[in-house]
Amino acid sequence: MVRKTPHETLRDEEKVVRYLKLDIKNQAKVQQLSDLIFGKDYASIEVDADNEEVWIACLDEKPIGFCKYLFNQTNRYYNVKLTDQVYSVLDLVAVLPNYRGHGIATKLAKLVMKGEQENPVFAVAWEITGNAAVLGVFKALGFRFKDNLGHIWKQQCLNNEFQCPAKKDECICTAALYSTV
C-alpha cells in the first residue's frame, strides 16, 4: 500500500486484511518476511511445530505481517532463565513498515495469545531504532517492562548464525524483557 495522504487507511482503499493460522501455502512467504524484518536465518517459521503457533495477516493473498508464539516453555530463552515455572513467549511480532499503525500487530498477538491464562507470558523487544511500534502492541496487551537483558543475540550474530539487520561492524542490539505478570 502506498498512502497518498496521512488520512488514508487500509479501509479507505476497501482492502480487507485477512488473519489466518500459518499453512504450508504461506510458509515460504512468511519465512521471507521474517528474514527481511529480523535478518536472514534469525527465525525458523514452520507449520505445526511443537509448542508454537504462527498467525499471519494477508492483504490480497500476500503476507504483510505475522506473529509467532511459543507456549508451554520450560527451557531457557536465548540462555536467559525467565522463570521457574512453565511459561509462554510472544516470540516474534512483525508487520511490514507500510502497514504499521493499523492495529495489525495487536490483532495478530491477540489471536496467538487467545485464552492464555495459565502461564506467565513474556515478550522480548529488540532495543534498536524503529522498535516503538512493538512497544505499543505490548502495552495494548497488558505487558509491563521487567528487565534489560543486554546483548542476548550478540554471540549468534558474531558467529554469523543469522544476519542481523542492524549490525554494522559489531552487533549493537540489546533486549528488553516484558511480562504480563
Topology record:
Layout: E1 17-21, H1 24-38, E2 52-59, E3 62-73, E4 87-95, H2 104-113, E5 121-126, H3 132-140, E6 144-150, H4 154-158, E7 175-179
Parallel strand pairs: 4-5
Antiparallel strand pairs: 1-2, 2-3, 3-4, 5-7, 6-7
What's the short story on this structure?
It contains four helices and seven strands, in the order βαβββαβαβαβ.
Could you characterize what this model shows?
The chain has 181 residues and is an alpha+beta fold. It has one domain (17-179): 3-Layer(aba) Sandwich (Aminopeptidase). Helix content is 22%, strand content 29%. Helix 2 links the parallel strand 4 (87-95) and strand 5. Residues 1-9 have low confidence and may be disordered.
* Category by helix and strand content: alpha+beta
CATH-defined superfamily: Gcn5-related N-acetyltransferase (GNAT)
Report the major sheet: 7 strands, mixed
Number of strands: 7
Low-confidence stretches: 1-9
- By CATH reckoning, the class would read Alpha Beta
* H and E string: EHEEEHEHEHE
Task: Round the mean pLDDT to the nearest integer and report it.
Answer: 80
Name the helicity range. Answer: 10-25%
Taken as a percent bin, the fraction of beta residues is: 25-35%
Number of helices: 4
